[in-house]
Amino acid sequence: MTPQPRSNGEAHAQSAALQVRDLRVHYDTPSGVVQAVDSVSFSLKAGERFGLVGESGSGKTTLAMALLRMIKPPGQIESGQVWLGGQDVLALSGEEMRKLRLAGIALVAQGSMNSLNPVTRIRRQLLDGMRDHAAAGSNSTDNGTSAAKMSRREQEAYVRDLLARVGLEPQVADMYPHELSGGMKQRVCIAMAISMRPQVIIADEPTSALDVVVQMQIMETLRRVQEEVGAAVLLVGHDMGIMAQFVDRVGVMYAGKLVEVSPVREIFSRPLHPYARLLIECLPSLEVKDTLEGIPGLPPSLLERPTGCLFHPRCPHATTECETQEQMLDEVQPERWVACHRLEQIHNSPPETGDQ
Amino acid sequence: MWVAGYLLKRIAFFFLIVLTAATVNFFLPRLSGQDPIRERMIKQVQSGSAWGKGIEEMVEVYNAKFGLDRPLWQQYLTYLGDMARFDLGHSIAFYPKTVKEILREALLWTIGLLTMTTLLSFVFGTFFGALVAWARAPLWLRSLAPPIMTMAAIPYYLLGLIMLFVFAFELRWFPGHGGYRIGTIPNLSWRFFLEALEHSILPALSILLSSLGFWAIAMRGMMVTVEGEDYMTLAEAKGIKSSRLFFDYGLRNAILPQITSLALAMGYVFSGALLVEVVFGFPGIGTVLFNSIKGVDYPVIQGIVLTIILTLATTTLILDLTLPMLDPRIRRQT
Ligand SMILES: Nc1ncnc2c1ncn2[C@@H]1O[C@H](COP(=O)(O)OP(=O)(O)O)[C@@H](O)[C@H]1O
Ligand code: SF4
Ligand SMILES: [Mg+2]
């Protein structure tokens, strides 16, 4: 399914694992309102891998956390809709939302050293989430696994199975996080994420802080288990190399907005949006650092956002129209959604300054 | 395997501390150049209770009696031997009472008052501080925070004086002095216990109120730090229940530094006792120390200092033995 920003979507909500419509999130800071996510719409098919890229500060993490409804003050989900399967996520009660986490939508946090509770054993951390989902039948997932109902032996078998799926020895269950390497910890996190067979896994830069070889192993593990449980994945990241290998489609975020959503092959071979183009073409190493040396200008302050197309101060193709007219994401070619006024001029005319 | 080695190391360390402290305790007063027997004699002469004549002979007799005439190293060895048996000799001021007897009486009061209040304020303060930092805690509870934290800024002896003035002298709700009524002889009856309890309320309350905030402030700070950790975010994303999030992830981690502080606080209980006990005339170890310093009663002073050091060393040992159980990361470093 492609984004359906303007359709009314009940029917689509059924067929997509996740559908996001016109989602807006802001932070109310002392220096002003930061519009971190601005009218974002996209959807994930069941089992699909979707990559979200963009410079740091473009709102990727905010978007990811909004899907879990874990935006903390001063942040706030302003408007929009999030559908998980047939469930209207933003309409759930707090308790219903808690139960939906892990069971319906799970998180693999950043590959930092600190995602596991340092003072309890891995076994306990693999089981406690399931334990707290014990009350039967209140979530929509069709799995019957509930740690509370399991006997000790069943729990043990379950933990073994989870660890084996992510390529870890059963002994890991008895260890504490500080006894594991970064890669092993991230495998544990992946095991947790699939423990209740969610429809959607959100992975926010899951391999940052890991070295390259381990990164690839972790991504492969994630791909394998994701296919096994049939979950869709939203992969947030800035490593284009990983994106190219892992995802089916890519969404490019700029200053809180999605500016292009395209299948991965096509966006890498022929990016349409000028920002996506700079992002991909200007990267010899295929890795976006915190600031993009290849792209002139600074990312806009989300406090004082430009009018019109947010990218116009840095865009080599900008005209006066771009400064005033906002452009919505539109399906300009089959499966390709782009937000830019001047696509035809840019791609039909000979290269201008800034192009190769 | 690490357990045995770790235990041995800790216990050896314990004895080393005690030995060092005992040694310092022995030499330090002797370096001060005071002569306890002579000073005592002179005092008695001044107050007219002894004859000025023959004072030198008496000093000699007493020095021999207390072993102060022998060479220093001999005194030291005897001292160490005595220490090992916890034989602290006789009090000079209350001769022939032994230091042990004096300490035993005083310790009961001090342990009853200070150990209890320290533990209670730790438990309540820590829990309260954790709840104050917890955004999901009820508002009425969090609104108690400012007064309790303000109280922590008042030194407990000052709070003690204020309470003494208000509740003992103005309102006359509670007795203002001592551990029991004048004329009562301490015994093991229920009535005596109630009497002692009544006398303990004001000093206990002043310590409790002023230290509650201390624990609460420290715990709140730790809890806020812990709440910002990645594992809290991930735990929430796992749909963990709020209560488990609080106890298993928040409290379990935030309490670790508190426990270190508790061990230190327990060690300082006796030294910290001094002011409160003096303010309230409470017959505990603080009052005894106060009086024995005034009376240059070396054996008692030494006994008390040794007791303080022993409790410090013991609590440190207990801490060393329990912390690895609470924090698995410590096991690796040792
Ligand atoms: N807790 C917060 N308070 C205020 N502003 C925030 C907060 N978290 C994020 N922001 C702002 O929201 C914007 C998007 O941040 P983020 O979602 O973390 O971006 P990304 O993950 O793409 O780096 C940034 O401008 C950032 O400054
Ligand atoms: S709308 Fe204008 S400024 Fe924005 S990307 Fe397209 S050409 Fe550039
Ligand atoms: Mg981020």
Key attributes of the depicted protein:
heterodimer, A: 356 residues, alpha/beta, eight-stranded mixed β-sheet, four-stranded antiparallel β-sheet, 12 helices, 12 strands, disordered C terminus, B: 334 residues, mainly alpha, MetI-like fold, 14 helices, binds adenosine-5'-diphosphate, binds iron/sulfur cluster
Order of helices and strands of chain A: HEEEHEEHEHHHEHEHEEHHHEEH
Total helical segments of chain A: 12
DSSP strand content of chain A: 15-25%
- Tell me the number of strands of chain B: 0
Largest sheet of chain A: 8 strands, mixed
Can you walk through the features of this model?
The complex is a heterodimer of chains A (356) and B (334). With 356 residues, chain A is an alpha/beta fold. Chain A contains 12 helices and 12 strands. An 8-stranded mixed sheet of chain A has the order 6-7-8-3-9-10-12-11, sandwiched between helices. A 4-stranded antiparallel sheet of chain A has the order 2-1-4-5. In chain A, strand 11 and strand 12 form a beta hairpin. The longest helix of chain A is centred in the middle third of the chain and has 18 residues, at 212-229. Residues 1-14, 136-144 and 351-356 of chain A have low confidence and may be disordered. Chain B is mainly α and 334 residues long. Chain B has a domain at 109-296: MetI-like fold. Chain B is built from 14 helices and no strands. In chain B, helix 2 crosses helix 3 (55-65) and helix 12 packs antiparallel against helix 13 (298-326). Chain B starts with a helix and ends with a helix. The complex binds adenosine-5'-diphosphate, iron/sulfur cluster (SF4) and magnesium ion. Residues 27, 29, 34, 36, 54, 56-62, 74-75, 302 of chain A line the site of adenosine-5'-diphosphate (ADP).
